[in-house]
Design goal:
alpha+beta; five-stranded antiparallel sheet; 42% helix; elongated
C-alpha cells in the first residue's frame, strides 16, 4: 500500500498511544502523525503532513542523520535523548525511538516521549547529591580554616603587643590588616556553618506571614524604584516548619533578586513578584505528595549568566561582583530541611526561583 492509499483507520491503534508517533516516507516527509504528535508539536495533522523531519526543528540535523541510518537499515531501532529546538516556542526535551520499518513506502517510524518528569527527577537527584557534597565541603573547609585562623589572629595580636613603642604606630597598620582579614574569614566560615549549627525549631508556619516579613525588609532597604507585587493564594494551608529558616531562605533569594535589579531600580522599573500556589501530586526526592506549597520569586532583571546557571547553589559561586556566593547555598539547605527543593529558570527579563515544600 502506498502512503496516499493507506487508510488512516489501519493505524488507528496508534491514536490510542500517549506518546507521539510519526511515520516518514523515503524522503523524510511525514505521511502519518497521531493525535499525541499533534499535541506535542502544537500543530494539526494537515499542517504536519508532507513536512520534512529536519524542518520541524532548528537543530534537526542530528535527527535527520539518524533517519538516513534507519533508511539504510543500519539498525532495527535506536533510542536517543534530545533537546529539539523550535522557532518561537519552548524547546522539547524528548526521548526518541527511531524504528526501521520493513516497508519501502514508509520506512521509518519515530516515537517521541516528553522527558519532563524524568528530567525533573534527575535534576532533584543532582541537587541532593550537590547538597551532600556541599555539606562535606563545608565541614572540611571549617576544619582546615578555623584552627590555623585562630593561630594567625593570635600571633598577629602578640606581634602587635611586642612591637617597640617607636615602631608601633608605623607597623600597627600591618598587624591590623592580618587581624581584620582573619575576622572576615571567621565570619565567612560561621555563615557557612550556620544552618548546621542552628537547631531546627518546628512550629506552625503561614507562608504569607513569611512573604510579608521578607517584603517589609526588602522595601525598607530599597524604598525607591522597586515594586514588590503580591500574588497570593490564600487557600494555601499552614504547615509544620521552622519559620525563621524559611524567612531567611526567601529573604536570601529575594535580596539577591533586588541586588540584580540595580539598573532597573535606577530606571524605576524594577519588579519582584511573590507568588504562592498549591501544587498537586508533586514528586520530591522520589516521594509522591498529594499537595505541596508552590512559591515563586520572580524578577524582571537581566537573568543569571548562562555559564553559572547549573552551579548557582554551589558555595562561593556568585554572579554578582562582591557577592559571597552563600545566600542561595543557605536557602537550599534550609528548604531541603523541610523536605523541599528549589528550582530556577532564568532568561533576560525573567528569573523565577520556585520553592516546593510538602503540605499536610
Amino acid at each position: 500500500m502506498t502512503p496516499k492509499s493507506t487508510p488512516r483507520n489501519s493505524l488507528e491503534g496508534l491514536e490510542l498511544l500517549s506518546s507521539a508517533v510519526i511515520i516518514l516516507d523515503p524522503g523524510s516527509r511525514i505521511v502519518y502523525a497521531n493525535a499525541a504528535a499533534e499535541n506535542l508539536f502544537e500543530s494539526s495533522v494537515k499542517a504536519l503532513m508532507s513536512q520534512r523531519l529536519g524542518d520541524l526543528f532548528l537543530n534537526g540535523d542530528h535527527l535527520a542523520e539518524v533517519f538516513e541510518e534507519a533508511v539504510q537499515h543500519r539498525f532495527a531501532d535506536k533510542r536517543l535523548d534530545l533537546t529539539l529546538e523550535r522557532a518561537g516556542r519552548e524547546a522539547l526535551q524528548v526521548h526518541v525511538i527511531v524504528t526501521a520499518v520493513d516497508n519501502p513506502e514508509m520506512p521509518v517510524l519515530i516515537e517521541l516521549r516528553e522527558n519532563v518528569q524524568q528530567l525533573k527527577l534527575d535534576r532533584e537527584e543532582r541537587l541532593l547529591d550537590q547538597s551532600q557534597a556541599n555539606k562535606e565541603l563545608i565541614r572540611n573547609l571549617a576544619h582546615e580554616i578555623k584552627n590555623p585562623l585562630g593561630g594567625i589572629r593570635g600571633a598577629a595580636q602578640l606581634l602587635e603587643f611586642e612591637l617597640p613603642e617607636r615602631q608601633l604606630k608605623e607597623l600597627r597598620e600591618y598587624t591590623q590588616v592580618i587581624i581584620k582579614e582573619a575576622d572576615r574569614l571567621q565570619t565567612l566560615v560561621d555563615r557557612l556553618l550556620a544552618p548546621h549549627r542552628r537547631p531546627h525549631i518546628v512550629g506552625d508556619v503561614n507562608i504569607h506571614e513569611v512573604c510579608e516579613r521578607v517584603r517589609s525588609l526588602i522595601v525598607a532597604e530599597f524604598p525607591q524604584g522597586l515594586t514588590i507585587k503580591r500574588d497570593y493564594d490564600l487557600s494555601v494551608p499552614e504547615f509544620r516548619g521552622d519559620k525563621e529558616q524559611l524567612i531567611q531562605a526567601v529573604l536570601n533569594i529575594t535580596h539577591n533578586a533586588a541586588q540584580a535589579l540595580s539598573q532597573q531600580i535606577r530606571d524605576g522599573g524594577a519588579q519582584i513578584t511573590l507568588q504562592t500556589r498549591v501544587a498537586r501530586q508533586v514528586t520530591l526526592a522520589k516521594i509522591r505528595y498529594r499537595l505541596a506549597l508552590d512559591l515563586h520569586i520572580i524578577d524582571n532583571g537581566p537573568g543569571i549568566p548562562p555559564d553559572i546557571q547549573d552551579r548557582i547553589f554551589y558555595p562561593l559561586v556568585s554572579g554578582r561582583e562582591g557577592g559571597s556566593g552563600l545566600g542561595l547555598t543557605l536557602a537550599q539547605t534550609f528548604v531541603q530541611q523541610h523536605m523541599g527543593v528549589i528550582e530556577c529558570t532564568s532568561k533576560p527579563g525573567c528569573t523565577d526561583f520556585r520553592i516546593l515544600i510538602p503540605l499536610p
